[in-house]
Amino acid sequence: MIFSSFPFSVGSRFLRQGVVAFAVLAVLAGGLVLFRPSQALGLDESESGPRVLLLNSYHPQYPWTDHVMQGIKKGLSGVVAEERLHIEFMDLRRHTDDPGYQELLYDVYARKFRSTRFNLIFCADDYALHFLEKYRANLFPGTPLVFCGVNAYDPGLQQRLGNATGIFEAMEVDKNLDLIFRLQPNVKRVVFLLDQTSLGALMRRDVEQAIATYSGQGVQFEIWDDFTLPELYLRLEKLGPGAVVQLVHLIADRAGNVFSFSRHTPILARYSRVPIYGMWGMALGRGIVGGMLTNGERHGLRTA
Questions:
Q1: Which of 13, 34, 173, 206 could connect to 210 by a Cys-Cys bridge, CB 3.0–4.6 Å?
Q2: For the segment 63-77, what is each residue's pLDDT rounded down to a tens digit?
Q3: pTM here?
């Protein structure tokens, strides 16, 4: 059976693990059928086929965004015609926490898509999801939503969004700590690298919860989030034996300089005298020694 759109309310299931694909359930005549969102859209690639919007939080040169986008495009291949997949980049790594900028984006999308009806919206990462939570009813009323790459788990999200489902990126700080202590049992100091953006503040909460589980075990935990990049390089250079660094979340430093995983991670590794662990596969091969890493392309593919 071919579906041209979601004929029912999506959103009965949220999965926190980025390595597990979600599924949408529909009751069809004669039984229960399990299928992915791309299958629900149908296989018609004609002019009357499904039209899909992919709203990315960041810019296309950011490796995570590129990997997630490629995964979603692979998942939709043969389901959505290329010219009917609309891809937008909000560029919010370079315009973080700027309400005026997001209001301008709203005006642009309102004009750009005023005559366009989407069968489905994919959104990647926290900022795009928060934007749609605020503006979706006006911009895309009634359109089902599938999200991915979301780090900050919010148990009330499903009810607020309505007609939505998706995959949480599930930043597993506790499992990264387990890995660190298993590989380096003599570690006595763990430094977490974060920033002071709104998303960084949400991730700090997860870090603090993970730290609490290790209290009283003789390990010193520190959260570094107030620095310029040159200051960070010098602080890393002073770390001594028994310490490790956990790279958690860096969008921009105190001066507003945007952190580039491809350009700045190798610099961090050159200055650091101790191992740096990561949380995203895009940092592997750029100076980190490893970690419980999330693969962006696989994440996007399983979303679609």
A1: 173
A2: 999 999 999 999 999
A3: 0.77
